[in-house]
From TrEMBL:
This is ATPase. It comes from the Bacteria. Gene3D superfamilies: P-loop containing nucleotide triphosphate hydrolases. InterPro entries: P-loop_NTPase.
Length: 266
């Protein structure tokens, strides 16, 4: 069975009651089928806007509660702060609804598997150490490494460094990192640099760096000013809190790597 509903676009708010009804109907249809259903909800943090999607999320939870014996759900998302809003905020509809499971990064066995596939297709062998290094430089993102391997196959090449450079260039171009950086004010840039460097933002040394970056004499930037910048960057999905108190990380590891390579000094 295949079905779907649209909850985006200009009419999203006006159509929310209709979408809520449709969601309940579709979930009931899924539950009435013979096999059990695994429901994958990707980028679920997009529904964290309670004003726009609150009723829809509440309907989703109600449907999953009603059909929990037949429908099992997995929620995934790329924003740690967005996921926290969905599942850890006390008044959120999905508060404590699921168990959070961090997925570990893929290890060398994944790289070796793709190298074996490459050899099967081309009859050539690639340097395993260079391949592993490329995977690490791509932040161990499987999609990017598969794109690199596909490029090598299609170009009949064994030049991993060259393919890696091309993948990096494509990522930066498609993600618009330079344009994203240009749109930030100097204070937000300085805070991002600290997040990319060591994750610490509110320490005296870090706040002194921020002041120096902005050319402001007199020592450390006041904490409230830094907090305002962090709030802006969090809202934009650029930084997220880590497990350490007062520590933050760049949401997009590739953007973090780009920043370290291009914008580490005032």
């Amino acid at each position: 069975m295949q079905a779907g509903i649209s909850i985006g676009g200009e009419e999203a708010v006006d159509e929310s009651p209709k979408a809520t009804i449709q969601l309940g109907q579709l979930m009931r249809q899924l539950a009435e089928g013979k096999p059990s259903v695994l429901l994958l909800v990707d980028e679920v943090q997009m529904l964290a806007d309670e004003k726009q999607f609150g009723p829809l999320v509440a309907a989703l939870r109600s449907a999953l509660d009603a059909h929990r014996d037949r429908i099992k759900a997995i929620f995934t998302g790329s924003s740690q702060d967005g996921l926290r809003l969905m599942f850890q905020k006390e008044k959120a509809p999905l508060y404590q609804f699921s168990q959070q499971l961090p997925f570990p990064a893929l290890e060398r066995a994944f790289v070796e598997h793709l190298l074996t596939t490459y050899t099967h297709i081309t009859k050539w062998k690639l340097d395993a150490d260079k391949a592993w290094q490329a995977f690490e430089e791509l932040d161990r993102v499987p999609l990017y490494f598969r794109s690199l391997m596909e490029r090598l196959v299609l170009s009949a090449s064994t030049d991993i460094p060259q393919a890696l450079m091309q993948i990096h260039a494509e990522r930066e171009d498609s993600a618009g990192y330079q344009a994203k950086w240009n749109a930030l004010n100097p204070l937000d840039r300085a805070v991002l640099i600290q997040a990319a460097d060591n994750g610490k933002i509110y320490g005296k040394e870090q706040r002194e760096y921020i002041s120096a970056y902005l050319g402001i004499p007199g020592g450390a930037m006041p904490i409230p000013t830094v907090q305002q910048a962090v709030k802006r960057l969090t809202t934009q999905g650029l930084v997220t809190r880590t497990g350490d108190r007062g520590a933050y990380a760049i949401e997009d590891p590739a953007f973090s790597a780009w920043m370290r390579a291009n914008h580490t000094q005032p």
